[in-house]
Structures are given as structure tokens and as C-alpha cells.
């Protein structure tokens, strides 16, 4: 274990993310934010994850904020994992999932060793919803523990209600629609679309622990903001009967250009400059950006079908493909004409894209995405309307929020989960073209959708400004745990 830190004088919050890009990124953002608000922050991550964001860590050090990274070594070998497999997106074989979680859950001892090395335990531990292993550690040292919930309140209260009311116990056909009980609106989902996190065979023990430890937490902190989904935030607070702080959107805290470029993976820094140059030459709101996040895989047949849809739409686009998606078939298809035919208006990025650099550019006018909560919220924050194509986890319910409740998305109509195993076409090129036209064309509906997106963007920015809802919530959050420490000190006369 390596640890860089200075002597502690202020409130000290420890952050323990799940090693997955969609969790690590917002939790690191939150760490920077807390540090900027005067808290001393320790971000506990494994070495390979720290390496991905090394330039940002260095940048934070230079910025004179109290932000330290505590690097734990991940016991890959002991749990049969390949070297360097330290994040969910590193897992290439589903058979390794269990070993990955076993390895993660064995980090309790190194974390205890780190806490023992401190003058006094941190004032608060912010830990991911999937990190139930941190709860006994927090209890051992008397540290208040807050759960970071990755998705929207819209999703987490849906999930909570489905579990509490045992709705799926009565379901025989997993594609049958059921109504979510005790919810502010009529929402219908299928079990296949919304099974709940870690609800897979072989993961029963992890899921049980996570659900139990959620109930023992001192509160929840969420990457969302009041003006976006207040009825669902209120509903979630009522259901949990605990403190719930919505303090997002976290992506807005990353104002520095270098931090934006290297967000999530240092490999995006170099790409940022050429992407910016390419975007600078385009008309306002003319470019469609396509990115399906860090985990969802698009298989060759579907990938080439997307290409046909983009060609037919005849619009400028930036399309992000994962390295593992570039199979020999795809490579040949790209070289055999697609790249040539679209060279004047298409930019393909292979690997990690500088998402915030792209979304915040005025030339970007639409975003096709799998509806991961972070990407969606980033698009909302930047005022970019979306084409939605959910694959799994919280994504179908997120689509519902964006398309049916907020009115800022066009759905591609996918109803069944797809974890990227079968090489089949689920969405046809013509449906892609139609959705792109609907989103990017003028016309009353498209204009209204774009206007609503801009309105939410304004509200997001106001929420994090001094006096805004998320700003005020964050102040309350910091005070709540700082005062808890003072009471503890008084009680123990330290
Ligand atoms: N991301 C990025 N570049 C990429 C892919 C993803 O910066 O090429 C970031 C994205 O901005 C978001 C996170 O990775 O912050 C993905 O989180 P999300 O929950 O949206 O999706 P997931 O990857 O977990 O499916």
C-alpha cells in the first residue's frame, strides 16, 4: 500500500469507489469537489485505476487541495484474475466476475491497515453501493458511512420498490410488464430490463450483503440535482427514511481543461486536441456523437448496421468504438469503403473518448447512447438531446426518465437487454436513420426537445453555483459529518 498525505488538520472524508469507470469517475469528481470545499479527501483505489487517472492526480496535487490517493494492491493472482484486471471494464470473460468481486471484498484488511495508520479515523466514509465490504470496516473504527448511489433517484426508487414489494416473486415471464408500486408516476418495466444490481446466479451473497448494508448506512449521496427529478428524489427520501443528499451534476466540477481531457483515462488527453480541431470546423449543433459507455459491447453485425444508418442520415458524426469491437470483420468493413465514404463528415475514435470535451462543444447537437447514468447526466448538463438505446442494468429505466418524463430523448425502441454476446442485429439501420432525423432535424418536436434540454442545462449549472440546490446540499452534507465528529470528540473528551 502506498499513501501520499499531509498532516491532517481539517475534516477528513474517505471515498471508496467500485472499480468501474461509471462509479470511479463520479466519485473522483466528488472527491475533488469536497477538497475544493476545504475537506481533506482520501480516495481509496487500486493501482491500475490510479494509473488511468495519474495526470489528474498529479494536477490535483499541484492545485494545492487536500486530495490524496490511497493505492491498494489488487490480489489478482490469488483470485485467478489476469494481471491488470482491476476494473469491471477489464473483465473479458464473464467467468471471472465472481473472482473479481471476491478479490474486491478481500480489500477490507488493507483498508483497515490504512485507517490504523492515521492519527484518528476519518470523519466520514463515502462508499459505493456495491462495496458492502466497507461497512464492517467503518463500524470497527466508528466511522459514519454514506452510500454513493450511482444511478438516478428515478431508478433507485424503482429498484427499491420492486424489491420491497417482492414484485418479481410473482412474475413467470421475465418479459412481462409489471407496474412499479408506490411510485409517483405509472411506470411499467419487465424483470429482464430491471433485475436489480448483482442479481445474477452466484452473486446472491453479495447482493444480500449490499441490500442489508444499505439499510445500516447513515445516508445516501447522489449524482443528480433537485430541479431534474424532484418528485423522485422526495419519493426516495420517504422510502429510505434517511438523509439523502443530491449534490450533482459532478461533471460540472471539472472546469479545468486538462482535467476534462484526461477524465477517466489518460489516453484521452492526446485525442482531445485533434477532436477539438475537427469539431471547430463544424456548424453549431450539427454533429451527432455516439458513445455506449465503458462496458456495453456492440458486436460486428450491429456495428456495421449502425454504420449504414449513419451513412443514410448524411450528417456529421463522432463515433466511439471500443478496441475489442474492432474485430477482423469490422476492420475490413471500415477499410473497404465506410471510412472513405464518410471521411468528410465522420470521425471514428477507437478507445477512450474525451467525453466532456466533445459534449461541451457547440458543434455537438445530439448524442446516441446506451443510457448509463453518468453519460446521460453529462448530456443533460451540456444541453444535448439524446437517442436512447439501453442495454442492461439501470439503463432501461433511465431511458424512461429521459424520453417519457423529461421529454429530451428519442428512443430506438429496444425492449430487451443485450449484454453483447450474440452477433445479431437488434436495431435496423433505417430505424437509426429515422431516430437521427427526428433528433437532429428542425421541426416543432425537435425544437421543443432541444429547448427543454437547454433549460435543464441551465438548471444544472445553477444547481451547483453558490446558493444552488446541490451547492447547499453539499454544504449541509459536509457540516453534518463535521458536527458528528465534534460531538464524538466532546463525548470522548479528546
Ligand atoms: N466515458 C468517457 N469516455 C468514453 C466512455 C465513457 O469519458 O469513451 C465516461 C463517461 O463520460 C461517464 C463514464 O465514463 O462518465 C461512463 O459511465 P456510465 O455510468 O454513463 O456508463 P458505463 O460505462 O458505466 O456503462
TrEMBL record:
It comes from the Eukaryota. Residues 244-313 form the Tudor domain. Signal peptide: none annotated. Keywords: Transferase. The keyword Membrane does not apply. One of its GO terms (molecular function) is UDP-glucosyltransferase activity. Belongs to the UDP-glycosyltransferase family. This is Glycosyltransferase. It comes from Rhynchospora pubera.
Amino acid at each position: 500500500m502506498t499513501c501520499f498525505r499531509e498532516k491532517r488538520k481539517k475534516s477528513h472524508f474517505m471515498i471508496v469507489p467500485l472499480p468501474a469507470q461509471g462509479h470511479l469517475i463520479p466519485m473522483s469528481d466528488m472527491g475533488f469537489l469536497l477538497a475544493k470545499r476545504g475537506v481533506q479527501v482520501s480516495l481509496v483505489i487500486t493501482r491500475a485505476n490510479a494509473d488511468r487517472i495519474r495526470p489528474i492526480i498529479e494536477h490535483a496535487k499541484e492545485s494545492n487541495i487536500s486530495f490524496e490517493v490511497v493505492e491498494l494492491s489488487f490480489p489478482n493472482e490469488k483470485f485467478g484474475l489476469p494481471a491488470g484486471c482491476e476494473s469491471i471494464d477489464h473483465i473479458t470473460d464473464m467467468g471471472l466476475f465472481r473472482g473479481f468481486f471476491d478479490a474486491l471484498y478481500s480489500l477490507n484488511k488493507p483498508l483497515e491497515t490504512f485507517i490504523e495508520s492515521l492519527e484518528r479515523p476519518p470523519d466520514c466514509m463515502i462508499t459505493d453501493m456495491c462495496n458492502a465490504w466497507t461497512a464492517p470496516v467503518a463500524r470497527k473504527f466508528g466511522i459514519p458511512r454514506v452510500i454513493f448511489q450511482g444511478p438516478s433517484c428515478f431508478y433507485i426508487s424503482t429498484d427499491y420498490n420492486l424489491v420491497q414489494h417482492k414484485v418479481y416473486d410473482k412474475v413467470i415471464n421475465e418479459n412481462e410488464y409489471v407496474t412499479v408500486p408506490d411510485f409517483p408516476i405509472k411506470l411499467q418495466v419487465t424483470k429482464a430490463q430491471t433485475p436489480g444490481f448483482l442479481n445474477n446466479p452466484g452473486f446472491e451473497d453479495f447482493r444480500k450483503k449490499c441490500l442489508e448494508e444499505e439499510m445500516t448506512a447513515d445516508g445516501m449521496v447522489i449524482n443528480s440535482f433537485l430541479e431534474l427529478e424532484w418528485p423522485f428524489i422526495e419519493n426516495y427520501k420517504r422510502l429510505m427514511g434517511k438523509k439523502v443528499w443530491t449534490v450533482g451534476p459532478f461533471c460540472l466540477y471539472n472546469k479545468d481543461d486538462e482535467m476534462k481531457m484526461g477524465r477517466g483515462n489518460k489516453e484521452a488527453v492526446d485525442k482531445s486536441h485533434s477532436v477539438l480541431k475537427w469539431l471547430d470546423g463544424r456548424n453549431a449543433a450539427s454533429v451527432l456523437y455516439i458513445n455506449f459507455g465503458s462496458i456495453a459491447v456492440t458486436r460486428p453485425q450491429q456495428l456495421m448496421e449502425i454504420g449504414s444508418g449513419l451513412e443514410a442520415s448524411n450528417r456529421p458524426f463522432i463515433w466511439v468504438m471500443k478496441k475489442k469491437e474492432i474485430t477482423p470483420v469490422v476492420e475490413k468493413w471500415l477499410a473497404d469503403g465506410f471510412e472513405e465514404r464518410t471521411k468528410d463528415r465522420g470521425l471514428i475514435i477507437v478507445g477512450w473518448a474525451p467525453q466532456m470535451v466533445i459534449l461541451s462543444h457547440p458543434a455537438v447537437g445530439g448524442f446516441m447512447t446506451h443510457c448509463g447514468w453518468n453519460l446521460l447526466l453529462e448530456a443533460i448538463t451540456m444541453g444535448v438531446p439524446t437517442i436512447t438505446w439501453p442495454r442492461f442494468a439501470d439503463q432501461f429505466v433511465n431511458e424512461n426518465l429521459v424520453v417519457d418524463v423529461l421529454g429530451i430523448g428519442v428512443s430506438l425502441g429496444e425492449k430487451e437487454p443485450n449484454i453483447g454476446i450474440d452477433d445479431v442485429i437488434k436495431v435496423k439501420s433505417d430505424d437509426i436513420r429515422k431516430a437521427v432525423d427526428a433528433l437532429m432535424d428542425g421541426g416543432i418536436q425537435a425544437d421543443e426537445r432541444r429547448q427543454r434540454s437547454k433549460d435543464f442545462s441551465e438548471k444544472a449549472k445553477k444547481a451547483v453555483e453558490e446558493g444552488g440546490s446541490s451547492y447547499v446540499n453539499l454544504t449541509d452534507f459536509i457540516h453534518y459529518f463535521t458536527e458528528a465528529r465534534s460531538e464524538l470528540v466532546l463525548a470522548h473528551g479528546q
